[in-house]
Amino acid sequence: MNPKKVHLLNAARKALFQRAQLGRSLGGARQEFAPDALKRRAAKKVNDRIDSSVAAIEAGLRKHRVPLALGALAGLAFAFRRPLKAAADKVADFLERQNADAASAPSPQPLEQDDEPV
After folding, report:
1. Which carries the bigger pLDDT value, residue 23 or residue 42?
2. Calpha distance 101→95 (Å, rounded)
3. Residue 111 in contact with residue 117, Cβ under 8 Å?
4. Which terminus of the chain, N or C, has fewer Cβ atoms within 10 Å?
């Protein structure tokens, strides 16, 4: 066979092979960039990030339990701030009444030396 024909045949085969590769890669790109595939990959990335964040938070909470407990107490105090304030106001009113009653009550007379308590 003529060397020019061989060269042309080889070039044609190479071109067909490259065209087939390009077709496969375009088909793969079409599949990868399809809306469903993009949605699936995005959801997987978000779930992976959430899982890693949760694992890191859990590890931190296991290490530092005291700040967690203080935070929980602060959260409870914040959640019950109105009932606690109402109870504190009632206690303050009660103590004010007690102090007012004690101030208005007659003071005991001092005992003279020859008087004995009954």
Report:
1. 42
2. 10
3. yes
4. C
The answer to whether 25 touches 19, Cβ cutoff 8 Å, is no
Cα 43 off chain centre by: 19
Q: What is the pLDDT of residues 27-70, one digit of tens each?
A: 777 788 888 989 999 999 999 999 999 999 889 888 988 888 89
Over residues 58-108, the pLDDT tens digits come to 898 889 888 888 989 999 999 999 998 999 999 999 999 888 877 776 766
Nearest to 88, CA basis, from 99, 77, 100: 77
CA separation for the pair 21, 56 (Å, rounded): 44
DSSP letters along the chain, please? --HHHHHHHHHHHHHHHHHHHHHHHHHHHHHHTSHHHHHHHHHHHHHHHHHHHHHHHHHHHHH-HHHHHHHHHHHHHHHTHHHHHHHHHHHHHHHHHHHHHHHHSPPPPPPPTT----
